[in-house]
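sanity check this fold:
=====
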Amino acid sequence: MKPHGDIAQQQANLIVTSTLLMLLIIVPVIALTLFFAFRYRQSNPEATYAPDWDHSTRLELVIWGAPLLIIIALGAITWISTHKLDPFRPLDRIAEGRPVAEGVKPLEVYAVSMDWKWLFIYPEQGIATVNELAAPVDRPIHFRFTSTSVMNTFYVPALAGMIYTMPGMETQLHAVINKAGVYDGISAHYSGAGFSDMRFKFHGLSDEEFARWIDGNKAGGAKLTREDYLKLEQPSTKEAVRRYASVEPGLWGAIVDRCVDGKKMCVSQMMAIDAAGGAGKGGLASTLRSPWRDTEGGKRERTVVAALCTPTNPLGLPVESDASTRVAQKN
């Protein structure tokens, strides 16, 4: 409840405000319950005895009006803060009374939850780390999240709330850390045998310290290729910190598209084909060439282009006819 990031601080304030509003009802109800039990006990001859009493307009107004006002207040606060603290919403301030300076770009960080470790990719700096995260103090951070196999949750309590990671999908978070230090990061969603050890350290650094941290990763790391990534994503527990001095271009997109190995069609390619009507007649494949051609013997055959996932073809469709299959059909 005493975090060092503005988003987490606003969330903590929201919890406190909501709790106090609810206590405005809870405390009087508990106090009055005890008072009534004592005041109207059977052994108290001074208490008013009114067995035929059944209604009081003033009491009804209090009983229904006060909770209604609390609910309206909670609803308004929830609606406003839900939009204000939307994790997809870019930051307009780094702390209370401190707007984001003009021209300051957020630090881009791509995060991948694995079994059972975290991979962080810094696309602008061209490095990657395993189970270690760092960012400059008072600089907005733009996270993009995905997962390799099962749903998980990224959570640095000092920074912001929990954000889910899902395979084949991308979620986001905009946040900022306002105080230098080393903070705990965890996985907050059970994901299997190594879940309890799926932890990492988040370092809040000055600009100079962050620059040195980047240089240290570039000096002491290897290159993160697709082959290395496929080995890294295999289940393992209690992984030590790893550093990669460079990252193969296009790796993040392939991770989200679930086609790092290049042996299967990417998710985005499937969606593109489906959006165009599928791979059959009238679909994307059949529009690349004439779908029918005459052959010997008085037959016609339809050419169906196989959609392949290759780095050089973003649509996943081969240009030459070598990759196509022919389905012979009678007139």
